[in-house]
Amino acid sequence: MKIILSFVVVLLCIGTLKAENGYELWLRKHPAKAVNVTTSKQSAVLDMAKKELTEGWQGKAGSTIKLIVKADKDIKGDGFKINEGVIQANNELGILYGAFELLRRVQTGETTDNVVSNPSYQRRVLNQWDNLNGSMEHGFGGNSLFWHKGKDSLTVTDAERNRWRDYARANASIGINGSVIDNVNASPMVLSTPYLGKVKEIAASMRPYGVRIYLAVNFASPIKVGGLKTADPLDPGVIKWWQDKAKEIYALIPDFGGFLVKANSEGQPGPQDYKRTHVDGANMMADALKPYGGIVMWRAFVYSTTDADRAKQAYQEFVPLDGKFRDNVIIQVKNGPVDFQPREPFSPLFGAMKKTSVMPEFQITQEYLGHAIHLVFLSSMWEECLKSDTYQEGEGSTVGKVTDGSIYPQKYTAIAGVANVGLDSSWCGHPFAAANWYAFGRLAWNNTLTSDQIAKEWLVQTFSPRETNETLLTATTAWNSGFLLPVKKMMLQSREAAVNYMMPLGLHHMFSAYEHYGPGPWYAPPRVRVDWTPPYYHKADAKGLGFDRTKTGSDAISQYKEPLQSVFADVNKTPEIYLLWFHHLPWDYKMKSGRSLWEELCYKYQDGLTTVRDFQKIWDNAKPYVDSQRFADVQTRLMRQTRDAQIWKDGVLQYFQTFNNLPFPPDMERPMTTLKYIEATPPLNIK
Amino acid sequence: MKIILSFVVVLLCIGTLKAENGYELWLRKHPAKAVNVTTSKQSAVLDMAKKELTEGWQGKAGSTIKLIVKADKDIKGDGFKINEGVIQANNELGILYGAFELLRRVQTGETTDNVVSNPSYQRRVLNQWDNLNGSMEHGFGGNSLFWHKGKDSLTVTDAERNRWRDYARANASIGINGSVIDNVNASPMVLSTPYLGKVKEIAASMRPYGVRIYLAVNFASPIKVGGLKTADPLDPGVIKWWQDKAKEIYALIPDFGGFLVKANSEGQPGPQDYKRTHVDGANMMADALKPYGGIVMWRAFVYSTTDADRAKQAYQEFVPLDGKFRDNVIIQVKNGPVDFQPREPFSPLFGAMKKTSVMPEFQITQEYLGHAIHLVFLSSMWEECLKSDTYQEGEGSTVGKVTDGSIYPQKYTAIAGVANVGLDSSWCGHPFAAANWYAFGRLAWNNTLTSDQIAKEWLVQTFSPRETNETLLTATTAWNSGFLLPVKKMMLQSREAAVNYMMPLGLHHMFSAYEHYGPGPWYAPPRVRVDWTPPYYHKADAKGLGFDRTKTGSDAISQYKEPLQSVFADVNKTPEIYLLWFHHLPWDYKMKSGRSLWEELCYKYQDGLTTVRDFQKIWDNAKPYVDSQRFADVQTRLMRQTRDAQIWKDGVLQYFQTFNNLPFPPDMERPMTTLKYIEATPPLNIK
Prior knowledge:
The first copy, chain A, is of the alpha/beta class and 687 residues long. Chain A is built from 21 helices and 15 strands.
């Protein structure tokens, strides 16, 4: 009877679920209850906090909320306390964060008393890979929010200002306080005076939400923009050019955050062009920014062929420089040693640079995880990285702790997320891709949060019924069991599913050519550098599969601290999720399941496919709780994801069969598409 | 231990399984044992029998086999007796059939004593839809065996003669004694003197195997070839032209079989062009052939829009003509009332023409059943038809019995199979398509055989190990359980699987446009006659699905004899396999399973897909018992079949959802490909 009643309630709801395009993200407006918000003073940021509370209050009608800016020993940085209707913080931004937290807690039904919340990192920064021509590198949420082509490319409209404000508000609601608004493969032009004029406008739009602007800069800017003959970091003219440029920027944007630099990586210019070091380059810039409180985020994503194993090269290049960087330089390190693969072990640079600030770089945009087509909740991946134990200062030296200042003293702590945000009405393309933006902000604020908690928060805010009247609240139980629990479970399974249908058991970098979407383990044309080709990584042959990174191979394991080194050295101790990352093993190697490596691999791909097939069912069954537009949008993408999982399974396994000539396990599904067709067809053209 | 030994034996075999291209069909050579064959006289046909026995003997070495041509009351027509090393028959051809039967029985381990075998039909005829330009209409086994383009198109080579002989031998081995060597959509040119010269050559090559030649003729031949101004069957000039032509043919080919005519059907000329009837046309030709013992096979595949329901039109046109045809005219009726669909109820013409010879026409070539790509064993379909009870002369008046002379006196009995045989090295394209050729022959000989028996015979002859020495015979147990039983099961499931993934529950004619391969339930362009478009047949709308052929609809059921009429009139009595053939039902109609019609439909498509997925496993697991070439060939086609089953399921169900807006049952697999893509892409281009 209860079930029937719930069902009736749900049916009543259905009529009221208006189409939503996702633009409101996790900040969807609900009818607000009356609330009285008091502040001790007035300011743009406090006004924002007040506005949010007044317009979004869903707690007890007639409540009073006091906003108090007052230092407290329990409150660090932009943190806050919430207790009995009071939000207290060290600064105004903390109040704004506290306001968003209070609204979220009311909506998710969590306690609103005795809450103390401090950020794990000082600088919580998005990296927009936005090109000045308006395109985005590996961006799947439409064109750039900030740049476009045309003769009016530097004219700013009110529509743009509103969009930037909405972007800043969404970021502020999850604690993100910075944005690098141009691609790391940077155009020198962004530092030209006309472009800086537009940057000033963007900064002004975001300032009320506490989002500071950073710029990715091209190391050769002094030549390209300044007209100098060199960009040598030790050249006095170059040094002066950067000092002058910093002065110019800060005159326009007093709270400018600093520079992000990709130097001597993948063809970008850098100090090594002048036989200088990363230290020379980064410190020169850091000195220019220092007077204004700016920082340099210097990327460690470098891989000159100093070693036969690309996974070792960043460590080899940066660890010897430890201790030589200025205190306002932060080395920005990708989560894994290669490049944002579906699964990598953590980069050995974490914890290895003990006298240098190091910040993690995560990729929110799904370059290697199905673009905006696949539903993959990346929080699980980042949680896995942040909680990985480096053992650098004994057990418990997690990646989170070695980067957030708990273990090593760092003047600046920071974390970066390569953004997936663009001009699409839904911001990110896939409605569930917004969950990754959300998760990055939440983990940047609190690097010990669980993905379960984050998924729950996001789902409640993103999909809960807008109605709050008594009748419809009875739908909550049905909503929980009919929508929240199954959909949350789907999100939490999704990253492992993607690993399984793309590259399980430690396989990596098996993507087709440049678009990094479909399978391409066979991709190895002549004249392409080998470390851009999958066979370099999977090393499949008649006998076996995997990259030997033990002492008999590249010895990359030596970059890890004991006991990890011994764990990864021993095939029996290596976690199977990293097995083929560290070992080249025979096809008949016996797995813990009792199956052979080949069979296990087959079943992993099958699991991945079966799981996303089930996602389609889960989502269909959630239909009564979702508006038609977002429902159909996700449904269509899940269909394609399932097809892609089939293509991955069919492509990779049939390709490996060309080496091992082994049959599929008797009871598993056979391929549905020929290897020949998959090899010949660009993955995005496969239907 | 036994299992292990078998396995070892199998492994020993593997090395010896040489690649086979399928050319040998079910007549694969094995090392022969010594045998002594004696005959009372000599002739070309008896020589063939002797040769087959000598070269193919696998029975006890040193056996003696006597061939005796001598009339016997138990032997009818080309039948024979086999007992204690003696093959006896009324005529030489019977001896040849007996020889093939004896060899088959030895190979399959069946008794070789007290065998009496008589043919169900006198004329067991293939209809080759071969065009004179060398192409084949709906032929998927390559180009024509008989015709080709070019200035040497009428020159006959030894290679051609050999191929025709091999074709005749394969036919003789299963009792087929006739072949119509040109398309029913006939070119008049085949009756021109130069072409008849080639026909004579073809006939000569086949004669030693008892395969007589027939020609499909164009009704307008007197105009096109004879230069007359009319083809009016009552015109004396026309009558004389056909008489002269018959004389000319029989002078060249004394055992010429007769004509096959498609008249006034799908644009072909016919007597109605001159306001004459089918009777006028057929009898005129019959009279011309009668002096020589020739027959006219006149097709009942006509559908002028005399009624709103195409399924009724042939019956309406032909039943009034019953009793008016000459005794050497046979009306050739397709198994179902529409057109070779995956499943149709039997044509109501069977048994309804009581004073006219009627012959069934089956389609061996898989025009509507996956071409040469899908593995579909059609024996099950034909068995279903032959055993369908027409009730025309009380219970037990099966289609088989009302056509084979057991119930109605017919001067001639016959059966036709539209052939799937062409120039491909494997003859039929798909290695398993040869099983359909085989099955047609076997059912033409004995219309009460089971598909189980036929599948077993074909598999043993087509795939059994060639070795006969003692050691390898021990592999037989493993071969039976590892190959024969699972692969036979697959064959026997295959037609129902195809029905399920294409058009279950009585749906029909939902193919895409002309190629009749993939789904096209939406196909309905303007200016295409409606009875060529699927919506005419499925009649999907918001409320339901299916063609109402009861009294509230087209009343096609009235063409069936009671009690069938009442069975089909009552939705609760109608077998569910024919449900939507006879009824238009609401989407929520409750099926016997308790599911709604929509749910049942969904599960049928799912069943079809799941079953062919399992076929891939079954075949893979049979790999040790099959040579590499045929193994890979079937494996590749099964992969495509599975993909097609997915496309059918995705295309049809999503299309029906556009009418009913119903969700899929909660636990079933969701689509993997969008309706939009399937609709926009020619089925054969879908990968």
